[in-house]
Here is the input.
Amino acid sequence: MRNRRRNTCAIIGALSRGPLSFVALRRSVNGIGDAMLSDRLSELAEAQLLERSVDPGPPVAVSYALTPGGEKLVPVLAQLGM
Here is the structure.
């Protein structure tokens, strides 16, 4: 559970600087694998803290960005040192 929270906070922190692709997120979050990142992104999207955007391309590009609700968490996480 602790690792899960840390990864979630790291994802929100990475996205606080702007939208990122899956690959860019994976590079930004140390020690996270594809499956875990995918799970965390799905959970955050379901909680309406981030949104997934698809640019049909070509080539197809998927990016992730914080919603206004997700952006509200950034200062709270910063105060907590996360």
Remarks:
- The beta strands are 20-21, 50-55, 61-66.
- DSSP finds four helices and three strands in the chain.
